[in-house]
Amino acid sequence: MNESRSHNESANGNGRWDDGTGGAGVAWHDVAMAVRRRFWLVLGLPVLLVTGAAFFVLHETPQYRARAVLRLGDARRALTSGLEVAVEPDRLMDPLLSLTQILKSRALLGSVVDSLGLRLDFNDSGIPAALIDSLFIAADAPPDTLSLEFSTTGVTAHGARSSRSATYGEVLELNGGTVRFRVSAQPKAVKASWIVRSRDETIDQMVEQLRVVPRTQTNIVDVTYTASGPALAAQVVNLVSRTFQRLDARSAREQSRRRGVFLDEQLKRAEAMLARAQVALSAFRSRQQVYSSREKLTAQQSDIGLLSTRSRDLETEREAYQTLLDQMESPTPAGHQRALRSLVTAPGASGNPVLTQLQTQLLRYRASLDSLTSGAWGSSNTNPDVQRLGDLVRSTEEQIRGAMRSRVASLDAQIAAVGTQASRSAAAIRSLPAIEAEEVRLVQEVETARRLGDQLADERQRAHMAEAVEVGQVEIVDVASLPYEPVSRFGGIKLALALILGLGLGVAAAVGLERLDLSIHRPDELENSLQLNSLAVIPKVDPARIEGTEAYRVLRTNLLLAPGTEGARSIVVTSAVPGEGKTTTAANLAASLAWEGRRVLLIDGDLWRGRLHRLFSAKKSPGLAESLMHDEPIPQAIHRTEIERLSFMPNGKPHGAPSDVVTRARVPPLLARLRQEFDVIVIDTAPVLSAAETAVFASSVDGVLLVVRAGRTDREDIELAMRQINGVSARLVGAVLNDPANVARRYGYHQYYGAYNADYARVGQ
Questions:
Q1: Which fold has domain 523-764?
Q2: Where are the alpha helices (DSSP H) in 543-648?
Q3: CB 648 within 8 A of CB 639
Q4: How far apart are CA 652 and CA 341, in angstroms?
Q5: pLDDT tens for residues 247-273?
Q6: 414-421: long-range contacts (C-beta < 8 A, 24 or more apart)?
Q7: Number of H helices, E strands in the chain
Q8: Tens of pLDDT along 178-208?
Q9: pTM recorded for the entire structure
Q10: What are the residue boundaries of the structural domains of the chain, listed by start?
């Protein structure tokens, strides 16, 4: 025995799986032994997983990845420099991240899906993709399965709502025109089934395959798409890039158009103001015949002119703010939104940092709210984040209205102040002729209106020029080329992971099975956990022969030297359950005792399934059953064997239940008479837990030998058998570990001795 191993294993009472510290851990030595004993499991699981992974890798559809490169901001900025109102960007917002989210928006990807007809899946139909063109799937087309039949003249398609036929090269329409395609030539297949997938499902799949990755510290974005075909991958990523570029340009042009509309309205009002001022001046001069000299009023008129210009500017700005404020407070959502969009182009708005900051903040909150509530996975209105963002949007809009009211009030105060100053200047020249003063005022009004009109006309012209620019902020730097090789699927890594996982599962399964295994494997387990004396370990022997192996010699010697068995002349050999090898053990033990020179009688006490008569080629009856019924040994029931000094008594044929034949009144007298003729009586009985008469035999002999099969007999069965034997006051002298499957050796027990054949054993005796 390995002493250090025995010391560590004795701590937990079962001889196994103790780490030597009293804990429940698994020692590395035990793990190694478990792997050794169950190597078939440790090797089988990796082989199985690696085989499955190899099959998966070999049959995996190759995937191709196409790449396009986009740049943000350069193209339109270069063409519209000085034409558009510059808006201070939000420092909390990353334009490239916003670009990434828009590129993966469902609206954009949905248009790509509809344009390319990606909802139609015909890859598994055996029809080459090169034969299919003019493909179109409407956005409102429901999911469907199309059945196609190909003949020499054309193709016939059957959908859920209609069936159509077309010749090769002709466009075929199904389901009211929601599905269109053309087959250019006859394929090899006769029939095929195509699947029209759900639009949302197709978009979700595209979102998974589309990757948008900004490059660090640049305004460059890489857009990649992975598909089963190289042409499809390049087609999708290029169409996504071009569609996004068009949408961005359209958005920029729409913003410039809205600014132009606002400026057109303001220009009309300025022109009307100029016309009124000119008419008033002409009428005044016609009435008063005033054509000259203002040299006297040069200084005063200059001051009044400046103040008048300032007052007009302030009034124009106030009127614009008041108009936008009225629109924002309008109950109609359309007017409300127009006011918010026009706010950035209002006179003086770009110079108002409060309004600029609030509008940028409002745009950020609205973008976050739209991102949270849009799409198939959008949150509902009851979501706390949606409610919080809604409150923030409303609060920001209220702040904008408050800021505009404050601005209007400030403009009123400034207009009042300018008016007061103008009044003071007018008071200084009251002494001058009223006619000349009136002329000066009218002239100043005309000049003020003209300057305002010129300024608005210039702004309007620049807005229309910016609207004419057909590019946006997105520039396609590199279009996607056709991928020339599939994307690496990491086949070697998958196989390695499968091998590692298989080994780990195999080791874990081996250790787990060892922990779940409650059977006896080594003789020290009998002694430590069951307090049962282990007399010998029997290796595999031929059950049809009696062989004088050294293991049975060890059993004979240990049995004769066991405490309390010095004068024992009768012994029962039994087991807890059937199939433990008790019959073979009893026969070989009896032969070993006979070879030592003792007169031995081997009795088959199993009246249910006795089979010792076959081993000795004797008749089954008469035997033990008949002798018990006659209360004395029947001479015909005792047979001589080929082994000198060994006799045998078969089980016989009982009349009635064996438990009625084997009783305390019959067994002891019979054994007493047999002891007169034999030195040792060995009785092979039925298993303890299977037959009641075994307890009668056990209580009638000098000792009981329990046979335990290594790796099979459960501890609970042994404990139950021991309780039954001890319950009838029988003497349990020890146990024999029968090990035909070489279990004990696999569990670290190596004290086996070589076997001698029967002829050599006879000569030795």
A1: Rossmann fold (3.40.50)
A2: 550-561, 582-595, 612-615, 624-630
A3: yes
A4: 111
A5: 877 777 777 777 778 878 888 888 888
A6: 414/314, 415/311, 415/314, 415/315, 415/318, 418/307, 418/310, 418/311, 418/314, 419/311, 421/307
A7: 25, 20
A8: 888 888 888 888 888 888 888 888 888 888 8
A9: 0.47
A10: 3-60+490-516, 120-196, 252-478, 523-764
